[in-house]
Automatic annotation (TrEMBL):
InterPro entries: 2C_sensor_his_kinase, HATPase_C_sf, HATPase_dom, His_kinase_dom, HisKA_4TM, Sig_transdc_His_kin-like_C. Residues 177-387 form the Histidine kinase domain. The chain crosses the membrane at residues 39-58, 64-89, 101-122, 134-154. PROSITE patterns: HIS_KIN. Gene3D superfamilies: Histidine kinase-like ATPase, C-terminal domain. GO terms for molecular function: ATP binding; protein histidine kinase activity. The keyword Transferase applies. This is histidine kinase. It catalyses: ATP + protein L-histidine = ADP + protein N-phospho-L-histidine.
């Protein structure tokens, strides 16, 4: 069973629609390049909560029970706004949507505040006065701001849903083109290349035919990986299970050692006796195999070295794959992490890491890139730790 702390956090995430309240620190660092806007927008929500909290706290000293109850409710709502502002800065929302939510918050304060001030002026003109006007205004503003923040969350989710719908349409086109036409053409090219390589006497022509066949096989592999990516995203986050990631890492290392006998593949587990369980997509094993295969195939050395590591904290399990190769190009890492757009001038050399990215996305995990100790690449896959292994 899940621990009470994790259950509470899951309830908070679902209630506030913040999918990554407890994500690793590096996620906020790479979210996008709107850092200042994000801080200002989320900070405005927190400042609203703090400003409204003060008059509620000063009203907790005494008075009728009803007034004390209103002060308690207003204090909780105001403090909740303060926490929501902090959570927004680390949430899965883009900076644009964080700004959108903060604008809704501001709209609630301005509109309801204006109405309240107008009513106070009107009461003054009638010769009557409102008792505890500051508290009354703050109480209503807190509830109004909270309601508008909730509306902002739904609005941001709606915008994101529309964006995802457009992306799905693009993926559907990619699906039809690559999975069918490109794969079929690659198969034909590879077949004719093999025939030419075996049937010509001229060694130069035979080498050219083998090059054609090899590149056709690469194209076919791209089509297969594209099929896997589309399948994973189409299925979405509906296939979570608890997996012993240690066993999957060891299996991936063993498979790589069999497939690439010249490669040195090692596994280093932080706690030698521990079994690390994670909640992940059913294609987690495929993602791990792609990580190891990518590290070996793009190494360039006759005897590539690949080191797999496994570490964990209370909430996350981290799989690291380090190599001594030339490293992943900076522009490809930027595209994979979402820091750069996928354009004709900024494209990846393959789709293996995109399969890993797809599994990370639907598993609510994090894909990261570092430089390895040997100057190559270190790819990390962080997954949410499971409390209930099956």
């Amino acid at each position: 069973m899940s621990t009470p702390t994790r259950t509470f956090r899951a309830v908070v995430r679902d209630a506030l629609m913040l999918d990554t309240l407890d994500e690793p620190t590096e996620v906020a660092d790479r979210r996008d390049r709107g850092g200042l806007r994000r801080v200002v927008a989320s900070g405005s929500v927190s400042l609203t909560g703090l400003a409204l909290l003060v008059p509620h706290l000063t009203h907790l000293g005494g008075g009728p029970l009803l007034g004390l109850s209103l002060a308690v409710i207003g204090s909780l709502v105001s403090f909740g706004l303060f926490l929501v502002g902090i959570a927004l800065a680390r949430s899965g929302f883009t900076t644009t949507n964080v700004v959108r939510i903060s604008v809704w918050n501001l709209l609630g304060v301005v509109v309801l505040g204006s109405v309240m001030v107008a009513n106070l002026v009107y009461q003054t003109q009638l010769g009557t006065t409102l008792r505890a006007p500051t508290f009354t205004v703050a109480n209503l503003l807190a509830l109004g701001a909270a309601a508008h923040v909730i509306i902002g969350f739904y609005d941001a989710r709606r915008v994101r849903a529309e964006q995802l719908a457009r992306e799905r349409q693009k993926i559907a086109v990619l699906n039809r083109v690559i999975r069918h036409n490109l794969r079929n053409s690659a198969t034909v090219l590879q077949g004719h290349g093999d025939i030419l390589a075996d049937g010509v006497d001229d060694e130069e022509l035979a080498n050219s035919a083998r090059v054609v066949s090899r590149h056709a096989a690469t194209i076919g592999s791209l089509a297969d990986n594209a099929k896997e990516i589309i399948r994973i995203y189409d299925r979405g986050a509906v296939d979570y299970e608890a997996y012993n990631v240690r066993a999957l890492v060891e299996d991936a290392a063993a498979e790589a050692a069999r497939t690439y006998p010249d490669a040195a593949v090692t596994v280093d587990v932080a706690d030698g006796d521990a079994e690390y369980w994670v909640d992940a997509d059913s294609d987690l094993s495929l993602a791990l195999e792609e990580l190891v295969e990518n590290a070996v195939e793009h190494n360039g050395s006759e005897t590539p070295t690949v080191d797999l590591s496994l570490t964990a904290d209370d909430d996350w399990v981290t799989v690291g794959v380090s190599d001594d190769g030339p490293g992943i190009p900076a522009h490809e890492k930027a595209v994979l992490t979402g820091e750069a757009e996928l354009t004709q001038l900024r494209h990846g050399s393959g789709l293996g890491l995109w399969v890993v990215r797809a599994v990370a996305d639907v598993s609510r995990g994090v894909l990261g890139f570092e430089e390895s100790a040997t100057g190559g690449s270190r790819v990390t896959l962080r997954l949410r730790r499971s409390r209930s292994p099956q």
